[in-house]
Amino acid sequence: MNYTIAIHGGAGTILKARMTPAQQQAYLDALRASLRAGNTILKNGGTALDAVEAAVVLMEDCPLFNAGRGSVFTHDGRQEMEAAIMCGRTLDIGAVTHVSKVRNPIRLSRKILEISEHVILSGEGAIAFGREQQVAFEEEDWFYDDYRYQQWQKALAADQVVLDHAGQKFGTVGAVALDLHGHLAAATSTGGMTNKKYGRIGDSPLPGCGTYANDRTCAISCTGHGEFYIRGVVAYDVSCLMEYGGYSLAEACQKVIHEKQPALGGSGGLIAVDSKGNMALPFNSEGMYRGWAGKDEEQVAIW
Question: What CATH number does the domain containing 162 carry?
Fold first, then answer.
């Protein structure tokens, strides 16, 4: 049995001309560290769930990405984070939305998957559950990033809700994996949109939209314009094309990302691995922070 892991750190208008060599190297190093954290678990016989959680935790702790510590500011000037993690063997999923001060929303999501009778917890209830389960919390200054603050100030002045990947600092993070036991898992975490209002929820915590895993087909983590990914039920759509339409992983991803999403107006990408260890990392934007690894390879890329 093969083992495989893929990760992403967001997709969008990522222009080479706007990135210094030092910035590029910082992103590649962060992606590589995340990739290796998950791949080491798989190599040593660990579960796909543990691998995707470990990979996402490292990106949540890195201020370069719009998740955890690097999350964007809402209209009210705080972080409201979302995450989900799903087991392909059982179809169990845990997800959170509208949580603040949680250091690693993906760890809270894992607790929901394992302990709670519910699938998605939100806001103060999710935070209360997290404190009961002794997940790590941080004060607001731990999440402060000057670039994110300036990004928020510009959005406030223009009265706009801004896609994170429309700027220079990106993106929702995620991981998918196949372990040596033949099981799949997917995880996604995000800070959402800059200056978002009214309790907006994106695709990341919604099963089948931004995150999905099923041992019969594939594991998917998405990044892009969440409203369009929700409308297209993108992650589950890829799985459905494989299960009911007989598509290969590559064919299903091509259909969804390069045909169906652009027809709706959606931009972004996804990472996917199937039950045989095949991978796909398609995107219809100018770039996507990504990486993939297995027994004999390790690659990270942006464009």
Answer: 3.60.20.30
